[in-house]
TrEMBL record:
Database matches in InterPro entries: P-loop_NTPase (IPR027417), Small_GTPase_ARF/SAR (IPR006689)
Pfam families: Arf
Keyword field: GTP-binding, Nucleotide-binding
Residues noted as binding GTP in the record, renumbered to the chain: 20, 74-77
Transmembrane segments: none
Keyword Endoplasmic reticulum: no
Taxonomic superkingdom: Eukaryota
GO molecular function ontology, one term from the record: GTP binding
SUPFAM superfamilies documented for this protein: P-loop containing nucleoside triphosphate hydrolases
Keyword Glycoprotein assigned: no
Protein name in UniProt: ARL16 protein
Protein's organism: Ploceus nigricollis
Length: 131
């Protein structure tokens, strides 16, 4: 489904979560997007190829051509997660970054224990030019 969350960075920012299964409707939200957080399950190697295809689709969308992108490799709290180095390699992130029109940043996170959350919030402040 879709969820809305408001953050204060210090100004109010609305974060819209659209799950991977909602991919077909993602384009209807692109025009409202000021920054993009693309979350990947780093503990599920069977989803890597479909996640990569979805990421490439998002990056090639004209309305997002200059929108900063943060790729979050999530679930690093699980014992079976793939490291940032492994995920970058599997996604061929070096090639993606060199071909993309928008700035792309990558971080490891754990939504469960909060690892990387401060870095995500700092990235949002910077990307949205919020002091």
């Amino acid at each position: 489904g879709t969820n809305l969350t408001d953050l204060r960075l210090p100004r109010r920012v609305t974060v819209r979560e659209l799950g991977g299964c909602m991919g077909p409707i993602w384009p209807s939200y692109y025009s409202e997007c000021s920054a993009l957080l693309f979350v990947v399950d780093a503990s599920n190697p069977t989803q890597v190829s479909s996640s990569c295809i979805q990421l490439l689709s998002v990056l090639s969308a004209a309305p997002l051509a200059s929108v900063p992108v943060l790729v979050l490799f999530n679930k690093i709290d699980l014992p079976c997660y793939m490291s940032l180095v492994e995920m970058k390699s599997l996604f061929r992130m070096q090639d993606i970054v060199s071909c993309a029109s928008q700035p792309i940043t990558m971080l490891e996170t754990s939504a469960r224990d909060g690892t990387g959350l401060a870095d995500v919030l700092q990235w949002l402040r910077t990307a949205l030019k919020d002091p």
